[in-house]
Amino acid sequence: YALALTELYRSTFDVSCLEEAVFLARQITERFEDRKNGGCFMTAHDSGELLLRPKEACDGAIPSGNAAAAMVFAELSFLTGEPFFQEAAVRQHRFLAGEAKAYPAAHCFALLSMAKSLYPHRELVCTGAEVPEELAAYLRTHPAGDLTVLFKSAENERRLSAVCPFTAAYPVSDRPVYYLCENGSCHAPVTDFNKLGLP
């Protein structure tokens, strides 16, 4: 559900989706994570005494819960810039790497999550009164996994800054302004979308 919310934010820029995804991801680490041996259990710490607490890592008809959690942490580390999620993603990937070593083909979604964190990535923050049509059109035709996009407006800036604190530094004006960062370095802001140089 948390992973679906990150995808819904990508499509709608509705901050409530991001807020709920952050809340749920924190619940995963607090209530399900095995801090001793890595990974996440399928039952919460407070769910009562059980003979066994399963901790699935292999994908089946759908990705495993642990692989989905890893993707959530990776997505939120890029979206929020918060060390909390970066560290959670590292712990989850470390656990899944050990699980996948013997049979990688059974851990495809976990490997996708690791690739997302290991390969070059870009972050784009757009500020303005509303989502520019040029940006929306680009995202409809280029659903790139190596680009994270946030939209900040006067209407959502307080809520967005609460879940993505780094966005507090970006001023909002009536016209769109784009801030693009790649591999830890940021370009000068531009007002012309075509000057971003996106593929």
Produce the secondary structure layout.
Blueprint: H1 2-12, H2 15-31, H3 65-80, H4 83-100, H5 108-118, E1 122-127, H6 133-141, E2 147-152, H7 157-163, E3 177-182, E4 185-186
Parallel strand pairs: 1-2
Antiparallel strand pairs: 1-3, 3-4
Helix pairs in contact: 1-2, 2-3, 3-4, 3-5, 4-5
Question: How would you describe this protein?
Answer:
The longest helix is centred in the middle third of the chain and has 18 residues, at 83-100. Strands 2-1-3-4 form a four-stranded mixed sheet, with helices on one face. Helix 2 (15-31) crosses helix 3 (65-80), helix 3 packs antiparallel against helix 4 and helix 4 (83-100) crosses helix 5 (108-118). It is of the alpha+beta class. It is elongated, with a radius of gyration of 18 Å. Strand 3 and strand 4 (185-186) form a beta hairpin. The protein is 45% helix and 10% strand. The chain has helices at residues 2-12, 15-31, 65-80, 83-100, 108-118, 133-141, 157-163, and strands spanning 122-127, 147-152, 177-182, 185-186. It starts with a helix and ends in a 13-residue tail after the last strand. The protein contains seven helices and four strands, in the order αααααβαβαββ.
